[in-house]
Prior knowledge:
Elements lengths: L4 H15 L3 H10 L10 E5 L5 H9 L4 E6 L2 H11 L6 E5 L13 E7 L7 H14 E12 L6 H22 L3 H12 L14 H11 L3 E8 L2 E7 L1
Parallel strand pairs: 1-2, 1-4, 2-3, 4-5
Antiparallel strand pairs: 5-7, 6-7
Bound molecules: S-adenosylmethionine (SAM).
Amino acid sequence: xxxxxxxxxxxxxxxxxxxxxxxxxxxxxxxxxxxxxxxxxxxxxxxxxxxxxxxxxxxxxxxxxxxxxxxxxxxxxxxxxxxxxxxxxxxxxxxxxxxxxxxxxxxxxxxxxxxxxxxxxxxxxxxxxxxxxxxxxxxxxxxxxxxxxxxxxxxxxxxxxxxxxxxxxxxxxxxxxxxxxxxxxxxxxxxxxxxxxxxxxxxxxxxxxxxxxxxxxxxxxxxxxxxxxxxxxxxxx
Length: 237
Ligand SMILES: C[S@@+](CC[C@H](N)C(=O)[O-])C[C@H]1O[C@@H](n2cnc3c(N)ncnc32)[C@H](O)[C@@H]1O
């Protein structure tokens, strides 16, 4: 049982898309940029698939696609399996800590997606996993990476942005009927995680992450979108 994400799994779909202001937007943007036509068969892996929000969007839009969903949290995997219903038959669910090397079956993939998962890994593992993703993709394969990464801001702009985010988030919670203490309880569990916990946030810079992708061998790397610290990057093998 993980300390944070297993506990958060039952509330995740109610809270996370409201907590992260552009959550729905970048999922829809990434879906529109999946480089296949709707009837094409392809196989993809979702790293840190959570409750399967993007997984379910891809499976629905691309009915010939099949997937592997990897997550550390068994409760997240179970939530995604229930959400998918009959489509879960097209998915192999694997409980896996991304700090460990990929399972052998992650090979010959057309696409890898990693949304808000890589930022949990220490810097050296962030580098190594880019090499593993590259190796797991077929030539021409695509990585869709959406994650929190730092970019430099002037101090006053950053402060204004944080203040705006806090008030905007309170308003969003109130409109969605989420009480502040429900959010605070999960945040407290997160901030109490041990220094060594695989679930901790370990956010690095956008520059470092782009360097990791280049060094892994990705040739075409497009930084498609960002909003404050949230970024969407598409890389091609
Ligand atoms: C913020 S959620 C993102 C979930 C989903 N990708 C989304 O966009 O909604 C992070 C997910 O990564 C998983 N995770 C965190 N650390 C992990 C690790 N070391 N190995 C595998 N999964 C991990 C968590 O269990 C959680 O489901």
